[in-house]
Design brief:
The chain has 2 domains: about 1-20 and about 360-450, Orthogonal Bundle (Arc Repressor Mutant, subunit A), CATH 1.10.10; about 25-320, pyruvate-formate lyase- activating enzyme (Alpha-Beta Horseshoe), CATH 3.80.30.20. It is built from 15 helices and 19 strands. It has helices spanning about 5-10, 35-40, 75-95, 115-130, 150-160, 175-180, 185-200, 215-225, 260-275, 295-300, 340-350, 360-375, 380-390, 395-410, 430-435; strands at about 50-55, 55-60, 70, 100-110, 130-145, 165-170, 200-210, 235-240, 280, 285-290, 305, 310, 320, 325-330, 330-335, 355-360, 380, 410-415, 420. Helix content is about 35%, strand content about 20%. A 9-stranded mixed sheet has the order 9-10-8-7-6-5-4-1-13, with helices on both faces. The chain is of the alpha/beta class and about 450 residues long.
């Protein structure tokens, strides 16, 4: 089957992004905080963990955004959130079995740099007092270049952050107006320059294709502008139009959105531009300089995937703090209350602010491994995976039928138990991964299209 026919058949499939398995729509409210407390108490103290802190505040609202965020028109709610976050650090640490080493630490949002510099320093001081930072630990923070101040840039450098990520999305003025994010290139360049002068060595830039009024020409121009700023990594995400979930997206005119073929052309042209500039393609949607740790991990078969996307983080435990954040241990996933008031109330009562989650079965762990390796490596030895997890490689009849169809279409090759995506099939990796998702057919959760 030709690439064009593959896209026509598969590109509009609604499938998860697989930053976890099982995915968040399949979490249950039946999971109790007491169960999660037991998971934390059984974390292996000899293993490094990763830590994620969620700050759900922004100073401006972007219409394309599907994140859990709140407009920070005043600082008082943000200051109150920081106080609760400090209490949550103490609460979670009280359940852990001993001093824990952190290999990766990430601040996400929202916009973490909406904090006052002193408050960011207070949070970092609390973390350093309760955890050990591993030698060479990565400390990353997301930021909005429109609102990042020079004072905050200086403080980020002083606190030892090693990486910063900026949402650029697109520089075309018409597209920016349509998504309510006016952001000239000189604003982004100033923000990046300030962080580099402060000692933050690594810079990530996020771009989005499939936005309203966007074209191949506008996106490739935006990439050329970004490359002048010398980012270490570029993430190229497909816009997920989910107005039934993210109500602010209803401000975007659906007739201005590019269709499936246009989206595919944008993704392919953007990838070609980045690869031609010397960036290594990584997984579904990441690109990195060849000396970047993500590129090295990809070449060595050590790439992983979590809620931050593709990562070098191989920790089995992710401690997640803040409203709506999702954590995991080897025993399961758990998500905090999404509403700050409910999150605060739980912490003040001395209980974990868990809203929902899922305990992992042996089958879940096997399928999570298979899906992650497909997403990261574009291939998997299914028989070896079954033996590794002590599970028979007895996939459902539906999954096997899907795989045979994909092989006939040229999306994948199947050689015994070895599955490998074709070059034409790589952009559709989420579709292949979905064949192993036993929850997807049972639940009517709505997802974004594959490309």
């Amino acid at each position: 089957m030709t690439s064009e026919n593959l896209l026509q058949k598969y590109a509009t499939s609604a499938v998860p992004r697989y930053t976890s398995y099982p995915t968040a729509p399949h979490f249950s409210t039946d999971l109790s905080p007491e169960t999660c407390r037991g998971w934390l108490e059984r974390v292996d103290p000899s293993e490094p963990v990763s830590l994620y802190l969620h700050l759900p505040f922004c100073r401006e609202v972007c219409w394309y955004c599907g994140c859990n965020m709140r407009l920070a028109a005043r600082y008082e709610p943000v200051a109150a959130y920081v106080e609760t976050l400090l209490r949550e650090i103490d609460l979670v640490c009280g359940f852990l079995p001993g001093p824990i080493e952190i290999a990766h630490l990430a601040f996400g949002g929202g916009t973490p740099t909406v904090l006052e510099p002193d408050d960011l320093e207070r949070v970092m001081s609390a973390l350093r007092s309760r955890f050990r930072l591993a030698p060479g630990a990565e400390l990353s923070i997301e930021s909005d270049p429109r609102t990042l101040t020079d004072a905050m840039s200086e403080r980020i450098g002083k606190l030892g952050f090693t990486r910063a990520s900026f949402g650029v999305q697109e520089f075309d003025p018409k597209v920016q107006e349509a998504i309510h994010r006016i952001q000239p290139p000189d604003v982004v360049a100033h923000a990046i320059g300030g962080l580099r002068r402060a000692g933050v060595r690594h810079i990530n830039i996020d771009l989005i294709y499939g936005l309203p009024h966007q074209t191949v020409a506008s996106l490739t121009r935006s990439i050329a502008t970004c490359l002048e700023m010398r980012p270490d990594r570029v993430a190229l995400f497909g816009y997920a139009h989910v107005p039934w979930m993210a109500k602010r997206q209803r401000m975007i005119a659906e007739d201005a959105l590019p269709g499936p073929e246009e989206r595919a052309d944008q993704a392919a042209s953007a990838a070609e531009a980045l690869i031609s500039a010397g960036y290594q393609a990584i997984g579904l949607d990441h690109f990195a300089r060849e000396d970047d740790t993500l590129a090295v991990a990809a070449r060595n078969g050590e790439l992983h995937r979590n809620f931050q996307g593709y990562t070098t983080d191989r920790a089995r435990t992710l401690l997640a703090l803040g409203a709506t954040s999702i954590g995991r241990t080897p025993e399961g996933y758990f998500q905090n209350e999404p509403v700050p008031a409910a999150w605060t109330q739980a912490i003040e009562a001395g209980r974990l602010p868990v809203a929902k989650g899922i305990a992992l079965t042996a089958d879940d762990s096997l399928r999570a491994h298979v899906i992650e390796r497909i997403m990261c490596d574009a291939e998997i030895d299914l028989e070896a995976a079954g033996h590794q997890f002590g599970q028979p490689d007895d996939w459902s009849a539906d999954a096997l039928e899907q795989l045979r169809d994909m092989a006939e279409d040229g999306l994948i090759t199947l050689d015994g138990g070895h599955l490998k995506l074709s070059e034409e099939g790589r952009p559709l990796v989420r579709v292949v991964a979905a064949a192993f998702d036993r929850y997807l057919a049972r639940n009517k959760a709505r997802h974004s299209v594959a490309i």
